[in-house]
Amino acid sequence: MPHAERGMAVGLFGGSFNPPHEGHLLVAEIALRRLGLDQLWWMVTPGNPLKSRLELAPLADRLAMSEKLVQDPRIKITAFERTLETSYTAETLAFVKARNPHVNFVWVMGADSLKTFHLWQKWREILSTFPLAVVDRPGSTLSFLSSPMARAFGHARIDEDDAGVLWKKQAPAWTFIHGPRSALSSTALRAKADSKS
Asked: Which pLDDT score, from 0 to 100, does residue 69 have?
């Protein structure tokens, strides 16, 4: 797990990153800037319960590709979840919170994840652990209005103009951040690679 000093604002950006691409990097950079973060932990997950293990590249490969893609020293590439022996975000966030009680964390995710967020194990618990920043992705701009999460936690949404103080808010609190978007997706990149082989 990366080191963070007391009082820092740190974004937690988890995913399969299978493979990592410029769209992921854009989400990370937008989060750093708009949320006023000191660091962002790019958490490469060992697996994803909602995705097939068959299509998942080895963790070491996804880590190496992430390290090659990311140049900003504030973005810390990590795969500490492999030592937790869990693939559930709620358990990871509870562990992070217990180990870093004096750090201000924000969970960061792309808007494309909102469609299935209510299917994640203990998704309501996730929203009660840390504030959440949802960063716009192509084709997902309106998902923050229609997703079960957005409807259930509409009362906890803060205005995008206040995104810079989201890390100071008590969970549940969340915001939707508009901005530049990349049309790249891991699914499309895998399909392109498969068609060449």
From this structure: 97
- H helices of 102-142, where? 114-117, 123-129
Q: Distance of CA 2 to CAs 5, 77, 110, 179, Å?
A: 10, 8, 22, 28
The mean pLDDT of the chain is 87
Beta strands in 79-171 (DSSP E): 104-110, 132-135
What mean pLDDT comes out for the span 175-190? 62
Give me the number of domains the chain comprises: 1
Q: Which domain holds residue 116?
A: 9-196
Contact 72, 25 (CB under 8 A): no
Amino acid, res. 142:
L
pLDDT score at 186? 44
